[in-house]
Design goal:
Elements lengths: L4 H18 L8 E6 L4 E6 L21 H5 L13 E5 L1 H10 L4 E4 L3 H6 L6 E2 L5 H4 L8 E5 L6 E5 L2
Parallel strand pairs: 4-5, 4-6
Antiparallel strand pairs: 1-2, 3-7, 6-7
């Protein structure tokens, strides 16, 4: 049943976009539309601007975009150095060839469980990214490990020495 929910919401968003482009109708600006799919009911709330809002209030203090990764104290995958051994990228095509060849690879999926359930590589091990620091000991450091994540377009492999 939840499969149709994004379709309904997507149609509403497309309709709102067309209203804004064409300058027709009454767009949802300043209003919050709630869709209850189980009861097939819509509810609308009016939103008021908060004069103390740091972004859109009377005297905004946030006036430009920030470096989100720096703000949160995390490094991006491209900035972070591997912990040991060497890390390289492997394309999805090359990865598939290696699987078809029967290469012995340990595939670690670091996505969230709900993402893993939607689509997963057979024989992969689920260790959500936040759990890696406490569960890495489950992996054999002598294995060739391929890490599958949702952020990168290609899987990464790490060979430990």
């Amino acid at each position: 049943m939840l499969g149709v929910l994004p379709g309904v919401v997507g149609c509403i968003q497309a309709t709102e976009t067309m209203k804004l482009i064409l300058g027709a109708g009454e767009p949802l600006i300043g209003r919050f539309l709630i869709f209850d799919a189980l009861r097939m009911k819509f509810r609308e709330l009016k939103l008021r601007k908060d004069p103390d809002c740091p972004v859109c209030g009377t005297h905004p203090t946030v006036t430009k975009l920030i470096d989100y990764e720096q703000f949160c104290g995390v490094q991006s995958a491209t900035q972070e150095a591997p912990m040991s051994g060497s890390a390289t990228e492997i394309s999805a095509v090359d990865f598939k060839k290696r699987l078809d060849r029967g290469d012995k690879l340990t595939i670690v999926d670091v996505r969230e469980p709900h993402e893993y359930q939607i689509n997963r590589i057979p024989d992969s091990v689920l260790i959500p990214l936040n759990d890696v620091p406490k569960r890495y000991v489950e992996l054999d450091p002598n294995d060739e490990i391929v890490v599958h994540c949702k952020v990168a377009d290609a899987a990464q492999r790490r060979r430990n020495s």
